[in-house]
Amino acid sequence: MRRFAYLHVDVFTDKPFGGNPLSVFLDAQGLSADEMQAIAREMNHSETTFLFPPAKRGAAKVRIFTPAMEIPFAGHPVVGTGFAIAHERGLARGEAVALELQHVEISTRVDADDFVWMTQPPPERGARVADVDRIARALGIGRGDIAMDDGGAEVWSTGLPFLFVPLTGVTPMGRMRPNPQVLPELLHDAQARGAYAITREVATAGAAVRGRCFPVGVGVVEDAATGSAAGALAGYLLEHGWTKPGAIRIEQGLELGRPSLLHVDVAAAGQPVRVGGRVVAVGRGEITIA
């Protein structure tokens, strides 16, 4: 029998059972792609990561799997994996942890209070979606719930593209019920991997925006905290005057009962962004494979 140990962490939260859960398999040597996919499906988190010896000078080579597929990049797995490596190897606070992903190397840093930063490329704007009725059908809300005069629906990306949709308040945010036929078609046409609804109405002191994220094709209906979207959202917020450069806080996951707080730091529009948050070690375990 082959045994593979993992660390279970919650990302973008300072309390267990909040944020977005992640399992990090600390030594995945000997696992095939099919076995990693089966494990990710078994863990049933939005993502599961698997560590291998680095090919270059990074701390580890990292492969990321959702319950349905392998993906090249995602925010909360990078933040959580950086924490897991520092935690397991006893690294000093403030020491960089470089992760070798499928197509890029990303540096993370674990500061005091288990706060982890990662750096993403400058946000890039994609398509603008003007069909309000189609967006409303896709999200299961009324056309009057969408604030198209507050920036409109646009795709932004720092590696994974998301369609950002501004809502008129927290009430439509809570009653969204995405249509499983219309939403994938909308996102396919917009060349986006998920819909991210936002509102200025927040429950967390200091937060600039509240969001809900609905990815498609990855085996997860809703994401509790989406680091890749947070970096891209900074581009949208600056472009449309929702906030100024500097520190931006985003709350997410409240409707799932997993409150999350994502921190974004951006010096100016068109500049790289830092995305970070607290991480909590919840437990550890072992998977046995014949």
Would you mind describing this structure in some detail?
- Strands 1-2-3-4-6-7-8-16 form an eight-stranded mixed beta barrel.
- The chain is α+β, with helices and mostly antiparallel strands.
- The chain is 21% helix and 37% strand.
- The protein is globular.
- It has two domains: 2-121 and 278-289, Diaminopimelate Epimerase, Chain A, domain 1; 124-271, Diaminopimelate Epimerase, Chain A, domain 1, CATH 3.10.310.
- The longest helix has 15 residues, at 75-89.
- Helix 2 (75-89) crosses helix 6 (227-239) and helix 3 (132-139) crosses helix 5.
Helix and strand topology:
Elements: E1 2-11, E2 20-25, H1 33-43, E3 48-52, E4 60-65, E5 70-71, H2 75-89, E6 96-100, E7 105-110, E8 115-120, E9 124-129, H3 132-139, E10 153-157, E11 161-166, H4 170-175, H5 182-190, E12 194-199, E13 209-215, H6 227-239, E14 246-252, E15 260-266, E16 273-289
Parallel strand pairs: 2-3, 4-6, 11-12, 13-14
Antiparallel strand pairs: 1-2, 1-16, 3-4, 4-5, 6-7, 7-8, 8-16, 9-10, 10-11, 12-13, 14-15, 15-16
Helix pairs in contact: 2-6, 3-5
